[in-house]
Amino acid sequence: MEIFKQNPEILRILIATLLGAFLGLRREMAALDSKKDRSFMGFRTMVLICLSGAVSTFFPLMPWLPAVFFLGLIVFLGIAYYNGAVNMHRIGITSEFSAIVMFWIGVLCGYDQYLIAVIVTVLLGSLNAFKSDLQEFTKTLTISEWKGALQLLILSGILLPFLPQTAVDPWEVLVPYNVWLLVMLISGIGFTGYFLVKYFGARGGIPLTALLGATVSSTAVTTSIASQSKKLKILNMFSCGLLIALATMQFKIAAIIWALAEPDMKSVALIPLAMGCASSIMGALFWFKSFKSKDESRIAEKGIQSQLNQPFELKPALFFGVVFILVLAAITFAQKMFGDTGVYGAAILSATVDIDAIVLSTIESAKLGDLDNNIANKAIVMSIIVNTLVKLVYLFFFKAYDLLKRVLIPVIISAGVGIMVLFLI
User: Fold this and answer.
1) How many CB atoms are located within 10 Å of the residue 3 CB?
2) Nearest in space to 359 (alpha carbons), one of 378, 340, 372
3) Domain tally for the chain?
4) Rounded-to-integer distance, Cα 377 and Cα 425, Å
5) How far is CA 98 from the centre of its chain?
6) Among 86, 107, 137, where does a domain finish?
7) What does the pLDDT read at residue 137?
8) Which of 51, 30, 67, 48 is nearest to 117 (CA)?
């Protein structure tokens, strides 16, 4: 609007007032519901603190004014805290820190940093609104889970920024930053999956466990289902779970290709994944509907255990990093030594254990120009076919013959589409 263009201070005051009022309303509502003594932080106080931060930036000849206002606020908060702790016996300093954050939200509005101001407001409001929920959540955590979060934070937030972002080997294959970033991506998915299983119930159903486990490794889920299916005679639900794991793998790989691959690679690789995923989902729905409710008690009592026994484990993360490096090196050297045949061999061998590494490595090699896009397409499609068919091999190896018969048709259809595409490339 024209008035805001001519007088930008009006917009800054308006947004600062709205953000202060938003947080002030929440605190006012909480104070009305609480039987404890009210804090000094109410609706009007929050608005005034936020406004003071915005107004302190309106004087370009005095750039130090926000610091002066802030020091004055600190003195006021110190007096308020002393009064609350000594005279009212109130324990806690959350209100005082909220006031400090609120002041700097106003300063952000004064400098036209509205997006950051809104994000900080939402975070602060969420901490206040979900206080009881957060307290209940902390009661459910274990020391091992907290340590897992700490490990993930250290490896991703502290170690990652210091890794070289250029190749460190003579063949220009190994870029430590890219390798570790992918390791953290896979580990982060597994970390999230662990807590989803925990709070939504790993024993609440085989499909949920298969879905969450397959976000990390559909092959691991397949071997677990094959083993459990011989103990629990609920083959229809196990068939549903295995096909859900397969569909999850296909969807995950499709998402990786869509996000990271070159544009001319997407259409070729996504066709077999889309058709295969549709086939797997239809098969899963068929077996899910055929599942008899009287068998549900057996799932609750002896439900398949998730592959995610720990929230974050260092060894699997390092193992994936080693596999990724080896596959990346194998693709480069195989192409130089054996041409296209070597690349395809690396794709086939890697896909029998894990498909993530070969897909990510192939995409990375294509981006760096070490691999032709057509060869990369064939390698990815081959890995998809092999990783799909290897599920049947694992079922046969574990002697889960009845389960193999139930999932044979959807798996063959998924692999068949990939084979057709492979011949058309």
Assistant:
1) 9
2) 378
3) 2
4) 8
5) 29
6) 137
7) 74
8) 51
Mean pLDDT value of segment 102-121:
91
Instruction: Tell me how crowded residue 291 is: count the other CB atoms within 10 A of its CB.
Output: 20
Residues near 233 by beta carbon (within 8 Å), at least 6 away in sequence: none
Q: In terms of Cα–Cα distance, which of 112, 82, 81, 115 is closest to 98?
A: 81
At 64, is the secondary structure helix, strand, or coil?
coil
Interatomic CA distance for residues 39 and 45, integer angstroms: 11
> So what's the pLDDT on residue 303?
42
Beta-carbon count within 10 A of 28 CB: 17
pLDDT interval class at 39 (50, 70, 90)? low
Which residues have a Cβ under 8 Å from the Cβ of 92 and sit 6 or more positions away? none
Q: Under DSSP, is residue 370 helix (H, G, I), strand (E, B) or coil?
A: coil
Geometric angle at alpha carbon 236, from 234 and 240, rounded to 5°: 120
Q: How far apart are CA 297 and CA 183, in angstroms?
A: 38
CA angle 193, 276, 350 (to 5 degrees): 65
Identify the pLDDT of residue 117.
92
Which of the residue ranges 96-100, 151-155, 342-346, 414-418 would you say has the lowest mean pLDDT? Answer: 342-346
Q: Do 400 and 256 fall into the same domain?
A: yes
Q: Which of 379, 385, 390 is nearest to 414 (CA)?
A: 385
Give the closest residue to 350 by CA, choosing from 372, 330, 377. 330
pLDDT at 305 over 60: no
Q: What is the pLDDT of residue 218?
A: 78
Band (pLDDT 50/70/90 cuts) for residue 107 is: very high
Residue ending a domain, among 108, 137, 166, is 137
Q: Which residue segment(s) compose the domain that 87 sits in?
A: 2-137
- 197 in Cβ contact with 209 (< 8 Å): yes
> Contact 216/256 with Cβ under 8 angstroms?
no
Which range scores top for mean pLDDT: 49-53, 159-163, 352-356? Answer: 49-53
Nearest to 217, CA basis, from 344, 281, 313: 313
Nearest to 127 by CA among 157, 90, 156, 102: 102
Residues 252 and 175 in one domain: yes
